[in-house]
């Protein structure tokens, strides 16, 4: 680094938890994945060891169509206090990142991230890139510190109940890929049910839901099952074959899983099974609660059959919770990811009349709600996983445009939506469901992001 001009960045947050607890969070499996911002795709390619001196991690970072490897090595590890990451290969001329946890009495601490870096291309790189890099670091660490603080507080509220052994299906999906690292950094042991061959040394069990294959003994003695698996309903036009795949992946998979659980001598205490607010169909401005009648249409029919497929577990005496998810907001996937490009280039706009209600939930609250129902014995049956303030499509459009600082002047008329998306347009874009999270609120779930603008700013890393 001799003669190299370096820059320094520091981000510091007070956290109401003991320093050893905050440090332990960082060294558990899943910490990096939990902290990776959803707006910036980063893939862990390889790891050698955990947080220990000399251990390395290889990342693949993507900027549009271009990707690059980043190799970092952990150094100067002081248990309970700090560790340092040094770039061995990557986009910077120099990069050193020190994570510090400083006690503030026995029940609180300061979390500090200090980065010393140098940009490539000497003075030209500094002139062009310093302001941009500083802005991105501010954005990144504001997000990371908020996630750490909220996660630790949420886990602390349940710490007396001890760690759980949890099986998760759909662990690579939008919700599952956020849920698993949330659980493992909280000290829980997670086993994934996967359709591919399990990776050597990974906590994975293979199953084939459509063929009805699942070795039930692999589930013996677990504390909980979170079932999230199912085909993406928005992956393509709804042909007859596509609709059959959507239905079978949910109904058949749930039947296979719950039949296996019902055969166990030591079944889990709770099964949390995904469903969706599609259960209610297109209902205009009617306020919908968990005891509202089901609606009509393909998605409503699928949701009814999906939920009914859990009956073997119910009859076994297992507490079964049916999570009716609203539109889950994350730029890593789902509806928001599809909206971002047109909105960023100024081509976003109202869909249809704009009067249809969108019942949404931020990705962190989708994860938080799962954690809440795992530990809340009073909850069973349907639970609406939506934020407390549904919005119309026009309100959603205006809010997203404001957060992105872009105009939203290009509407998508209903006739055009149907022409492009077929039957799927009526169910996913034009239908109205004004859903209330009655049971979450009644059991004192505290939303991290109760308003749409707050949720969008968090997942997109866009400060106000």
Radius of gyration: 23 Å
* Corresponding CATH superfamily of the largest domain: NAD(P)-binding Rossmann-like Domain
Mean pLDDT: 94
What is the spatial order of strands in the main beta sheet?
Answer: 11-10-9-8-12-13-15-19
How far the N terminus sits from the C terminus, by CA atoms, comes to 37 Å
Please state roughly what percent of the residues sit in beta strands, choosing from under 5%, 5-15%, 15-25%, 25-35%, 35-45% or over 45%: 25-35%
Number of distinct helices: 14
Shape: globular
How would you explain this protein's 3D organization?
- The structure is a single chain.
- Strand 6 and strand 7 form a beta hairpin.
- The protein folds into 2 domains: 150 residues, START domain (Alpha-D-Glucose-1,6-Bisphosphate, Chain A, domain 4, 2-Layer Sandwich); 297 residues, Rossmann fold (3-Layer(aba) Sandwich), CATH 3.40.50.720.
- The mean pLDDT is 94.
- With 464 residues, the chain is an alpha/beta fold.
- It has an 8-stranded mixed sheet, with helices on both faces. A 7-stranded antiparallel sheet has the order 1-7-6-5-4-3-2.
- It starts with 6 loop residues before the first strand and ends with a helix.
Keywords:
Rossmann fold, 2 domains, Alpha-D-Glucose-1,6-Bisphosphate, Chain A, domain 4, seven-stranded antiparallel sheet, eight-stranded mixed sheet, alpha/beta
